[in-house]
Amino acid sequence: MNQNAVENGERQRSSIGLKIENFSKSYDLVPVLNNISLEVNPGEIFVIMGPSGSGKSVLLKHVAGLETPTNGRIIIDGKDIAQPRTRRELSMALVFQAGALFNSMSVFDNLALYPREHRLYDRATLRQKVMRALETLSLQDAAKKHPSQLSGGMRKRVAIARALVMEPELILYDEPTSELDPTMAATIIEVIADLREEFGVTSLVVSHDRDLALTIADRVAILMHGDLLEVDTPANIKRSENPKVKDFLNPVIDIKNPRFKKKDYSS
Amino acid sequence: MKQINNILEHFGGVLILCVRSFAYLPSLPLQWRRLIEQCFLIGYTTFPIVAILSFFIGSVLALQAGYSLQAVAGQDFIGALVGLSLARELAPVMTAILLAGRVGSAISAELATMKVYQEVDALVTMNIPPERILVLPRLVAILLMMPVLTISANLIGWLGGAIIAQNIEFIQLDQRIYFQGIQNFVKFRDILDGLIKAEIFGFFVILVSCHVGLRTTGGPREIGASVTRAVVISLILILVLDYFVTSALMKF
C-alpha cells in the first residue's frame, strides 16, 4: 500500500488467497464441474478461460458463496465459504456478467448502497469515493441515470465501479470485457492490473478474452466441459502441446473445411 | 407425495423468512426512509380502492338487509347488521383481499424480478441480507398500515350503508336510528377482533408474497407465475385463516 493511498483515507487492505479443493457440482445429477482443485495466491491475477458452457461462471458463483458445492470445499483466506460468518469477515466483490445492477436506483445510489448500508463514510467522503470510481471508468456523466437508460457496456462498467467502491481484498470478475469495445476492454484490463499494483487486490477472472488472459494474468487455468485441463503461466499456456488448448487459444478459421462439419465436432 | 413435500417446504420457508427478517429488527431505525416509503406504497396507494370497495359493500349490505327486514318491519336493525358484519368480518377480509391483489402482486413481481436478474445475489455478495432491506421494512409497514386501512374501511362502509338506508324508497331509515343501531350493537371488542384479524391477514399476505418472490428461479415467464402464485396462496390463506382466527377469538 503506497503513501498516497493512506493519505486519501483508504481502509487498510491486505491480500487474501483462495483454495478450491476437490470441487464438484452437479445439477439434477448432471455433472457440470468435476473434481476441480486449484489455488490462487494472495495478490495474484488468476484467469480461468474456457468455452461457453464449460462451467466457469458456475465455479465463480460457488466461490462467491451463492451456491453450495455437491462435493469439495472452497477456502478463502483460510476460512470455508460454506460457513455463513466467513462472508462477513471477508471483503469480496463479484462483478456479474450482466451487471446485476439495482434497477430501481440511480447509478450513484447503486455504487453508494454498500458503503451506506455498512455505514463506512460520512456524506462528503462517500460522494468523493463514488465519483472517483465513476471517473475511473469514465462514467461521471451517468451518475444520475438509471440502469435501464444505459447501454450493455456501460452497465458492465457500472458493475465494475460498484465493486471498486467496496474496496475489496478479492474481486471476482465474470466476463469483465465481453460486450465492450476494444478501447474500453483495454481500460478494464488496465483497471484490473492497476488494482493489484496499488492495493494488492487478488483477482479471479473468468473470461475468454485472450488479450486479458495473456497480458495481465499471473496464471491461467483452462477449463473445458467441466474439467480443468491446465493451470500455468500465460507463457507456458501459449506453448501448450494439448490440441484442445491450442485450438481454443488460436482457432484456425478454415472455410473449406469448417469445424461444425467435422465428425468429432462436439463443442 | 411430492405435492405434500412442496407445501411443507413452503411453510418452512415462510417461517424461516419471518424469523430471519425480524432478526434484523434492530437495524430498522437506520432504514426509516425505506419504512416510510413502504408505508406510503402500501397504505396511501391502497386507500382509494379500499374506500371505493368498502363504500359499496356497506351500501349493498344496507340494501339487502333493508329488502329482507322490511317484510318483518325490522328496518331499525339495519345499522346493527351493517355495522357488525363490516367490523367483524367484511372490512378485514375485503381489505386483505385488496391488499393481496394490489400490493402482494406488486411485491412478488418486484422481488421475483430482482431475483431473476441477480440483484438479490448482488446484495448477498455485498453482505447486505435481502431479508433486512427487502422484507423487514415491508412487514413492519403492513403492521402499521393495516389497522388504518381497516378502520377507514369500517367508517366508509358504515357511511355507505347510512346513505343507502336513508335514500332508498322502500327502506327510508333515518340516519339517527341507523347510527344508533351501530352504537348499541357494535362493541369495542367487535372492532378490536376485526383489527386483530386484519393484522394477521395483512402480515401473511406480505410475508407470502415476499417468500414467493424471493424463491423465483428462471426467466420472465417464472416472474408471471410467481405473481399468480403469490396472489392465489394469499387468497386461500386469508379465507382459511379467517375461519380459524375467528373461532379462536370467540373463545377469549
Which residues of chain B form runs of ≥5 with pLDDT under 50?
none
Tell me the major beta sheet of chain A.
6 strands, mixed
What's the gyration radius of chain A in Å? 19 Å
CATH class of the largest domain in chain A: Alpha Beta
* CATH architectural designation of the largest domain in chain A: 3-Layer(aba) Sandwich
On the 0 to 100 scale, the average pLDDT of chain B is 93
Q: How many distinct folded domains of chain A?
A: 2
Q: Strand portion of chain A, in percent? A: 15-25%
The helix fraction of chain A, in percent, is 25-40%
**Number of H/I helices of chain A:** 10
Oligomer: heterodimer
CATH topology name of the largest domain in chain A: Rossmann fold
> What spatial form of chain B do the alpha-carbon principal axes imply?
elongated
* SSE succession of chain A: HEEEHEEHEHHHEHEHEEHH
Give me the count of strands of chain A.
Answer: 10
CATH homology superfamily of the largest domain in chain A: P-loop containing nucleotide triphosphate hydrolases
What is the alpha-carbon Rg of chain B in Å?
Answer: 21 Å
Outline the structure in words.
The complex is a heterodimer of chains A (267) and B (252). In chain A, 36% of the residues lie in helices and 22% in strands. By secondary structure, chain A is α/β, with parallel strands linked by helices. Chain A folds into 2 domains: 3-91 and 167-261, Rossmann fold (3-Layer(aba) Sandwich), CATH 3.40.50.300; 103-161, no CATH class. Chain A has a 6-stranded mixed sheet, with helices on both faces. Chain A has a 4-stranded antiparallel sheet with strand order 2-1-4-5, covered by helices on one side. In chain A, strand 4 (71-76) and strand 5 (79-80) form a beta hairpin. The radius of gyration of chain A is 19 Å and the shape is globular. Helices cover 84% and strands 0% of the residues of chain B. Chain B starts with a helix and ends with a helix. The mean pLDDT of chain B is 93. Chain A binds chain B through residues 61, 64-66, 87-88, 92-94, 96, 98, 100-104, 113-114, 117-119, 166, and chain B through 30, 110, 113-114, 117-119, 121-122, 124-128, 133.
